[in-house]
Amino acid sequence: MTNSLPHPRRETVEANLISVLQERTSLSASTAAASSSWMRAEPRDLPSTSSGTDATMCGAMSALVGELVDSIDRADPSQAGHASRVSALSTMLGSSIGMGVKELRALRVAALLHDVGKILVPTEILSKNGPLTSSETVEMRRHVVYGGAILSRIPVLAFAASTARWHHERWDGLGYPDRLVGHAIPLYARIVAVADALDAMTSVRAYSPAISLAEAYEELESESGAQFDPLIVSAVGPLVGASGFQDSWISLVSHMKSMPIAA
Ligand SMILES: [Fe+2]
């Protein structure tokens, strides 16, 4: 995750972030204060993850990430649960390609927060019951820029900023916002792109009915090397082909909800 992250509209996002979090989420006073102080803090000021403050940080991280995920679901209720399903599936894919525990922990959080920028997209666009106009589509697509900017300003979540910004990039360079190509797209973002698409295709959406897992996998395969990283698509087949995959996925989602998030 070494890509440098540009920050267009950073000042605007930063200036509005705390008030938006408080207005559009149910952040408790203590969590809002914690996130606020994290945003102001320099990384050197933060407690070490190996210090005696681990339990406190772990609880605070779990609360902050949980509140942000809830706020994403509230901002776009038609997609409620999407972040949790993408997170669970991403960790399964990460595990399939050989990621270690530490990376899987980070991937879990990055995937949970991939659409966090939607909390800054106007509600009328998120909840519009009809096709988006071209200007609305432009604004909707900005969720990746907003998400990257939000997370880059929260030191303990800054590692997740690249996934938020680049999860709509395409392997062939035709994605957005930066048209990154191939391995220039960070690995977490390439994994989340596949998990995001699989969940989207197998969930009922405003203008498209859910399709079966087998059909969704066929779609992924047809986009392997075009929209998606072939390595990640190749990891999907054995997963979805295993009997009981859907039950395993759902049960991992519910299991992960009770797992604390490590700082
Ligand atoms: Fe997205």
Can you summarize this structure?
The protein has 263 residues and is mainly alpha-helical. Helices cover 59% and strands 0% of the residues. It has 13 helices and no strands.
Q: Any overview of this molecule?
A:
With 263 residues, the protein is an all-alpha fold. It has one domain: Hypothetical protein af1432. It is built from 13 helices and no strands. It has helices spanning 10-24, 29-40, 54-75, 82-96, 101-112, 123-126, 134-141, 143-152, 161-166, 187-201, 213-222, 230-241, 245-257. The longest helix has 22 residues, at 54-75. The site of fe (ii) ion has 5 residues, from loops.
List descriptors:
263 residues; Hypothetical protein af1432; binds fe (ii) ion; mainly alpha
Topology:
Layout: H1 10-24, H2 29-40, H3 54-75, H4 82-96, H5 101-112, H6 123-126, H7 134-141, H8 143-152, H9 161-166, H10 187-201, H11 213-222, H12 230-241, H13 245-257
The chain binds fe (ii) ion (FE2).
Fe (ii) ion binds at residues 114-115, 143, 167-168.
The helical percent reads 55-70%
Q: What is the total number of structural domains?
A: 1
> Could you say what the CATH architecture is?
Orthogonal Bundle
* Main β sheet profile: none
* Measured distance between first and last alpha carbons: 17 Å
